Amino acid sequence: MKYPAEQDFIQVVLPDDGSFLKIKETLRRIGMGSYKTKELTATCNILQKKGLYYIVHFKEMLLLDGKEPDITPEDNKRRNTIAYLLSEWGLLNIVDPRLVEDRFSNSKEGGFRVIPYKEFKNWTAISLYDIGAANHD
Asked: To the nearest whole number, what is the mean pLDDT of the chain?
């Protein structure tokens, strides 16, 4: 099994100690969702490994668990776009910006939604991967 940097995960640097939790909460509000059902499936996670931080697609986390998910080019572009947005919002710095050059021009093109914090209480959050959970079947 390869480590995240070898998988071309998006390595990031956090600007301060409170950034990890801000990013984790923000990522809960970014994903595939429906305004009709008010359900949102988170697309990405923030991974801390050996003191380094990465923005990863949930399918990449399954890969680390030894599963064989079907990771599409669109999944990678979606992850790249989300990492780029987090950087634009000042929540993190991307170590190698070239890794996010292949991205969608916006969330609409990428097919994902960004739910504002104030509205998120009206949504049902769905996570297809919870870091630290014992079993990811």
From this structure: 88
Here the tokens at position 97 are 């910006």
- Domain 4-126 bears CATH identifier 3.30.70.650: yes
Distance CA 69, CA 92 (A): 27
Report the chain's terminal Cα–Cα distance, integer Å. 18
The secondary structure of 47-59 as a DSSP string is: EEETTEEEEEEHH
| pLDDT at residue 5 is higher than 80 | no
Burial tier of 137 (Cβ tally within 10 Å: 0-12, 13-18, 19+): exposed
Nearest CA among 75, 77, 76, 58 for reference residue 67? 58
